[in-house]
Design goal:
With 458 residues, the protein is an alpha/beta fold. The chain has 15 helices and 16 strands. Helix 3 links the parallel strand 4 and strand 5. The protein starts with a strand and ends with a strand.
Length: 458
């Protein structure tokens, strides 16, 4: 059977993993990031039997290219990836045959071998006007070598050619994040030997820089004692650096409550020397609303500890969270001014379907939601929403408060403005999508709890 995996615009790690699993299961597999490749183009004599569409963003469901692709193709199409966390929206927006829910390594093979059926775990599909969902199961984290495309060396995701998974799951409960729902709250770690073998193959295929993926990187081999396994984390970084060279390894995301001096020293010695914290807000009230599990004091301590260890610190911040008052926003500006971060990323709160944030947004009237409220302050001439204005203002503020301040040129000013406006458009579009499926989401959840024993939702 000929299978084509389409991962729009970039090769996601998940699409490469699924490709490797299917290849070793005997399928003829092609991986492409183009919706117009010969393998999937309806105007060619492509002999693809099934298309697996790997989608990693809610915005993919609103992308006209993807919508046209699914409506015009005469092939069987199954959708997987992070968007599978809300299959009823996927099935409502795209003309596809089924959604592979959650970790798809095993259920995808069953689906391809047997076709759509209620007997297959972890899928969703339409039947007689209703949506059937079967209960997903965690996949075996040890698997074959990924299907690595020939041009992977040309890809850049935040500076890395590829993100490599070291473990799955997250013990956090951040209200804006879908990782715990997708991968669970129990940490499942891969063997170092398998990780190193995989990275070695990526390097052989031209990859120059890798990033460690898996949520919070320091939770690798997280123990039952509710503490970081420092020795395992250090051994992991040493082994990866032995293949790639320390300056070609990054650990993009770490929670501030799962670092200590040993962890940071290892990051300094065996990686490019950066750590990226999800700081999100300078307001303890908003951090509590976000369910971050930390406060601003803990954030500042982790920043200062990293700086003392010679590690550069990038921080991400979220503005426009429901209920964020101007006083909360000012506390975020104050934190940035006081901490001298090396890099700063600002995002408008995006309500990913199925997260606690999405529930908050659905309970918040547009008139009280910063993403829709008209900004009446110093940027009112720019006709921004309140979320856009805060995103723009914080980005400008951050440039002047970094450890090495940037000169505010017209080009930088316009880039910050364009980014804030683009984020605002995207978040409003996602919010409208949520509102469109508000009732159906509730009914699905109610039916799911009634049919918990069977795992079937109708």
């Amino acid at each position: 059977m000929k299978i084509t995996i389409v991962s729009p615009d970039l090769y996601t790690y998940g699409s490469m993993v699924i490709g490797g699993v299917l290849r070793d299961a005997g399928f003829d597999v092609t991986l492409t990031k183009s919706l117009e490749s010969p393998e999937v183009n309806a105007d060619t004599d492509a002999d693809t039997d099934v298309i697996l569409l790997s989608l990693y963003s809610t915005l993919h469901l609103l992308d006209s290219r993807i919508r046209d692709f699914t409506s015009q193709s005469d092939k069987t199409i199954y959708v997987g990836g992070p968007v599978s966390a809300y299959p009823e929206i996927v099935l409502g927006e795209l003309n596809v045959d089924a959604v592979i829910i959650g970790e798809g390594e095993e259920s995808t093979i069953e689906l391809l071998e047997n076709g759509v059926s209620e007997d297959i775990s972890g899928i969703a599909f339409r039947s007689d006007g209703e949506i059937i969902m079967t209960e997903p199961k965690p996949a075996n984290i040890e698997r074959p070598m990924p299907l690595i495309p020939d041009d992977i060396r040309n890809q850049s995701i935040r500076g890395a050619n590829v993100y490599v998974e070291t473990h799955r799951g997250c013990i956090g409960a951040c209200g804006f994040c879908q990782v715990p729902k997708f991968f669970g709250t129990k940490i499942r770690s891969r063997d170092i030997e398998d990780i190193v073998a995989e990275i070695s193959e990526f390097k052989r295929r031209g990859v120059r820089r890798i990033a460690i993926s898996g949520g919070t990187s320091s939770l690798y081999q997280y123990g039952n004692g509710k503490s970081v396994n420092v020795n395992a984390f250090i051994e992991l970084l040493q082994a990866i650096a032995g293949v790639m060279g320390s300056r070609n390894v990054s650990v993009p995301d770490i929670r501030v409550d799962y670092v200590d001096e040993e962890v940071l020293r290892a990051i300094h010695d065996f990686t490019m020397g950066w750590v990226y914290y999800g700081i999100e807000s300078g307001s303890d009230r908003i951090l509590k609303e976000m369910r971050k599990g930390v406060n601003s004091e803990k954030n500042v301590y982790a920043i200062e500890l990293a700086q003392q260890c010679g590690v550069k610190v990038g921080g991400s911040f979220i503005v426009g969270y429901p209920g964020e008052a101007i006083e909360d926003y000012q506390l975020t500006k104050d934190l940035i001014e006081d901490t001298f971060l090396d890099d700063i990323f600002v995002s408008i709160a995006e309500p990913i379907p199925g997260t606690h944030l999405s529930e908050l947004v659905l309970k918040t009237d547009d008139s009280e939601n910063p993403t829709f409220m008209e900004h009446g302050g110093e940027y009112r001439a720019l006709k921004l929403t309140e979320s856009e204005a805060r995103c723009f203002d914080l980005a400008l503020h951050a440039q002047m408060c970094k450890s090495v301040p940037s000169i505010l040129t017209d080009q930088l000013y316009n880039a910050c403005l364009d980014d804030a406006q683009a984020q605002g458009r995207d978040v409003r579009a996602v919010t409208r999508l949520l509102q469109k499926y508000r009732g159906r989401r509730t009914r699905t959840d109610q039916i799911s709890s009634k049919n918990k024993d069977t795992g079937i939702v109708t």
